Amino acid sequence: MAGASGGGKHQPLPDTGAAAPLKPSAQRRRRRAVNIGSSVFLSNWFYLWTFALISHARATASKGMIVLRKLRFRIADDLTARANGRSLDDAWKHEVEHNPDRPKVLNALKAVYRTHYFLIGLWKIVWGVFTWLGAWYFLKVFILFLQNDEDAFVGHMWALALFLSSFLSSIAIHQLYGECAKEGVRIKSALTVLVYRKALVLARVRGGAGEVINIVSTDIARVQDAVLNFHFLWTSALETILILILAFYEIGYSAFTSLGIIILLAPVQIWLGKITSEIQRNNTEITTQRVHVMSEVLTAIKLIKFYAWEAPFSAKINEIRHKEMELIYYAFQIKAINYAVVFATPVIVAIVALATYRFTGHTLTSSLSFTILSVFNTLRYPLLMTPQAVKSFSGASVSLDRLTAYMTQPEVQPIATLPIQQNDPTSIELKSASFTWEGESRPALQHLSLKVNRGEILAVIGDVGSGKSSLVAALLGQMNQTAGDPVKIYGSMSYVPQEAWLLNFSLRENILFGCDYEKARYDEVIRVCALQRDLTLLAAGDQTEIAERGANLSGGQRQRTSLARAVYASADVVLLDDPLSAVDQAVGRHIFNECIKGHLRGKTIVLVTHQLQYLSEVDKVVHLKDGKIARYGTFTELMQDETFAELINNHVAGGEEGDDDIEAMPLEPTVGNAVPVPVASSSAGGAPADVELNQLTVKSLKNLQINEQTISSMIERNQLSVIKGVGKSHDVAGAIQRNELTIHSLKELQMAGSIDFAHDSDDEYDSDADGEGEERRAGQLVTEDKSAESLGWTDYVNYARAGHGSALTVFTMIFFFLVHGVRIGSDYWLKCWIPDSLKLGEDGDAVYVGTYAGFIVLFAAGVLARGLLFAREAAAKARFLHDRIFQRILRAPMSFYDTTPLGRILSAFAKHQFHVDETMPDSAMQGLQYVPLTLGAFLLVAIIVPWNWAPIIGLLIIAALVIYWVTPVENALKAQEAVSRSPIFSHLGATLEGLFSIRAYRAQTRFDALNMTKLDDNHELFLALSLVKSWTALYMDIITSIAIYVTALLMVVCRNDLGTTAKERASTGGLAMSNALQILVFLQWSIRMIGEVQAQMSSVGVLTYYATQVKQEAPAEIKETQPAATWPTEGRIKFDDVVLKYHEFGVAVLKNVSLTIEPKEKIGIVGRTGSGKSTLLVSLLRIVEACNGKVTIDGIDVSKIGLKNLREAIAIIPQEPVLFKGDIRYNLDPFNRSTDEEVWRALEAVHLADTLRVMPLQLESPVIENGKNWSLGQRQLFCIARAILSRAKILVLDEASASIDMQTDALIQASIKKNFADLTVLTIAHRLNTIIESDRVLVMEAGQLVEFDEPLALLGRPNGHFASLVANTGEATAAKLREIAQAAHNERVAKRTTKPDAAEDPALLEHAGSPTAGSPAKSPTRSVHS
């Protein structure tokens, strides 16, 4: 039961003894192991072990690309998810026990990590000691050495001291970074494991899967970020105090002016941190909203094109984007202010302090002036880090509160499985049991009393919402039991959910689900679950890797795989939640006979079903209504009830087409597998034969003996099915959610290149598998991702041109350098001031101070101005690039969407747009702040120190070689780390979707282990990347330390060349050394920012590619050929010799189709999947343009008019209704063309007006994602109301799903018949009973029109296609269908005879029902082209 346990301490996971991951780890063999870190402290201090890592990584290069999958990174045990998860889990349990009322995740974290984390903070103190020793004391005494002409040995000692202080401070800061990165990984691992384990026992996932994924991706990431930045928060205050102490020590009370400025700046810094955090939070929300709507648009793009709804969705996206751009621009302005404070404050504070000191009667010396300047320069460190640290700390505080709230949610208390009683046949027993869902007070199930014995089949039936699935959930222990005796279940359980839940493993692994492989048992399960033929179609047989959520299988294949898992588990009790809904009738009958009644004989089976034809063959039936048992007993007993008997007699097994006639083709076949596949035989005892499936790729179709029809079937299935959008309604929300996995780690997306999130980090290959990539791509039906191809400098040029153009971009960059030139000028002026080089005399100080102040004011204004100019330019470029790609993508033809994965397109709008909006401009802004400073300092010390240019150039060359050596490895690690992050979220999402299944099979321990494996896979790469970055930064700092030493050394050796007087020498030395010391920090920061910009510039290439290279569909409107506003007035449709191909060089899926549909005719269209019935309507709506022939409506060639005019003239009712997030009115009339009265009339016509009138918001009542707050039947009725409001003369209808109950289905059919009597209606049929009353039926086969006549006439052809389809439904159903067809025919004849001019109407005469009507001889316009 759920909820009996409160929050907090979660129950231990059941250990089924199979803790190993589902997926075998054989793929890790033969890979070179590389350790992350070392046990030798010197190796860690100097990152010596990293040399081996970089060398091994570079050695894997193939065709210029580093292949990291050839390496296996290993982290220490104390860094693994298992070790940290165990530690924090224990600490959390202890926290809940000792503080049950208000447990806090922070307290548990403190208990585990506090001591070690604060010891790491000692490195920051060590860094501070050596940094200020160099910037203050050693600099001061070195300038005094130059000023006082001391012995050269003293100078050499101080030069060495300057080197050592720089060198040791570098080691300390990079140890801090490295250790904090490790501690961040420990805490992230521990929290993710804790959150995942909680998810496994949650009674209810509040906020849905997205909420939990958001906690992992955002909240835990914020805590990790705080771990990296917290030591900068508390030390910032200490560093500022230390700087002030040093200032007071040097210039006494004159430093009070500096203190005043810093005190005034403190609240500004805190405000900047908080406002940045607030902007980031708001921006993340609005970005998530934009990407969600974009995901909604892309997922349902075919429907949007059907409805010609591009304009309202464009307006919606643009409105959100406008808000987002306002926040982005504001964020850049805040950053500009922050950088102005960071770079201007030190020099302002310095000039104020020195001026105060000078005008209070003191004498300025070079040693004092440049020491004060150097000390205040270090003020940049706390000023730069404080806002970032405040932002991290405040963000982490909120996130920790959210984590605590999540961890204290109620948990399920699973039903204890009782051992089977030998003396008692009872298997399941409920006595007056009532159940509620967690968080809801109203019982979902009330007063249920059931008893099912071993070996019995219990069928559960009822309308939608009657409680069928809730009953299954209650038996699984997923609901709170509020009344009655405890549920008793004897023996183990297996479960088949209503929507098949599959994992990204092989087909076999999905079936075995952790059980041992037994060939005979496995083969029999494959047979009884009707999977034999599927294994011959899948390229690698049962070793074919299944895409996430089974995306590369048909609906029927997914459901039968899910069933096979439950059957193979060989459990005592099998719960089947509507397992036959996704399969056609023949397959359904096979499964019922061979599997449910045959293979599972002796097992207890609970079968939820809408397939009432099977009820006579089960042991007991329970009929649920409104959560209560309406009827319960044997089929014979229930048939005594007139209502039940009527329900059974009215049920027509309509020959659902199902998905099983789709010949599914694998998207990524694996070559060279020989898989033994049992071949289907006519009897249960048929002997299996081995079929060798070698090279079953799209390139070698001959091995499959695939014909043209198979290919067209495959192509048509890829069109997202006609008018269905993306299949079942619940799949739309799922598709949107999984598309959005791209942005779950928005704040972590600073990565290289264009990473395809579809790839799994587990997809590791042996070192000898270089050629495997091409083989894997051989069978792909999607196009290669050319958007990610690097264009080098072209991307920079395209970015420069965006926004306000290249000229302003170049000026902005130059402006950064010019402003820093002012800063260098001020330093040089200070050099002239101290020795009075300009000989200005007694009043010279006023001139020097005034001019210096002018430099500083100009510099401060310049820093602010350049930042604001950059902000304006960056925002303009982001806006320009987004608008271009958005308009281009929205007008792309469906062929683009059919060959481009939606995840890839969404990635452009999420990840790549995020790079262009925020992360890349942020890196560029920092780089443009640091690079002028670094280059300026290098130039200054190279010019003013004799002969220093030579070693400086040499050291820069060495630095360039180091960067050249490490950059490919760093980029490869970035890319692979990004790829490895996605599977963590995918696994979490899959777990949350399949919680019932995981709990039913007691697989929690295995899934927990798999989660930890994926975490470790990511953290190995994350640590490798972080520590390689630290290695680069350390050796850049070491090179800088050498530059500082060489500069000091040359000044000792050549001090007489520094100036003619001691004062001049001291001033030159002070200027050189104070600038050289700045390089220590800013060189490595400059290189890091340039690398970030370079890595993310490819995102500009992706956006530019989609904005320029994607083909466009025909214009929305063509003024010259625009039809009248009232067109079409009749609704006559004529196809004239139409040929259509989905791709230019593809197979023709419509072949010379000619037919005429008269006004107001009701046409049923039938045919197997791939026959072309869907394509017929695709061509009518010009979703794909015909390559030959033409289609006319009321005499107007539809290819000559705009797409908007065409599509608005045709109303659409999709098979699975799609509603968009918003309100009811927006969903019915997004253009606001109808009055409220008209909307209400449409709602009354579909029996929804009364439901809405009692709601407080009425027409503004909200519609959540995919309309999930409305029932399936209501959503279908809303779509009918939408069609009514369209005022079209032609209606295209894809018949409603078979999964809705009969009462709702009858209401929908009646609404269609009543409201569209005067329209031309084309219905794609999935159930024959709904089109048997049509005026005519059109039968498609292999892209050709093979039959087109009145249903009764077609039934009169013994060997006809339609007659065969009807015969396949079974004898009783066929007879019922024939009876309905006859009645409809009689009704039409009667109507015609009542019209006085009926005999004179040739169209009516033609429909008189003659068995030969529609034949080529009689009706040329309906000729059948063979």
TrEMBL record:
InterPro entries: AAA+_ATPase (IPR003593), ABC1_TM_dom (IPR011527), ABC1_TM_sf (IPR036640), ABC_transporter-like_ATP-bd (IPR003439), ABC_transporter_C-like (IPR050173), ABCC_6TM_D1 (IPR044746), ABCC_6TM_D2 (IPR044726), P-loop_NTPase (IPR027417). This is P-loop containing nucleoside triphosphate hydrolase protein. Residues 137-395, 810-1099 form the ABC transmembrane type-1 domain. Residues 1385-1398 have a biased composition (Basic and acidic residues). One of its GO terms (molecular function) is ATP hydrolysis activity. The chain crosses the membrane at residues 117-138, 158-178, 230-249, 255-272, 336-357, 363-383, 807-826, 846-869, 933-966, 1033-1054, 1066-1087. Residues 428-651, 1133-1367 form the ABC transporter domain. It comes from Allomyces macrogynus (strain ATCC 38327) (Allomyces javanicus var. macrogynus). Residues 761-773 have a biased composition (Acidic residues). Residues 1-26, 760-781, 1385-1426 are annotated as: Disordered. Keywords: ATP-binding, Membrane, Nucleotide-binding, Transmembrane, Transmembrane helix, Transport. It is found in: Membrane. Its main location: membrane. It is a multi-pass membrane protein. Gene3D superfamilies: ABC transporter type 1, transmembrane domain, P-loop containing nucleotide triphosphate hydrolases. One of its GO terms (cellular component) is membrane.
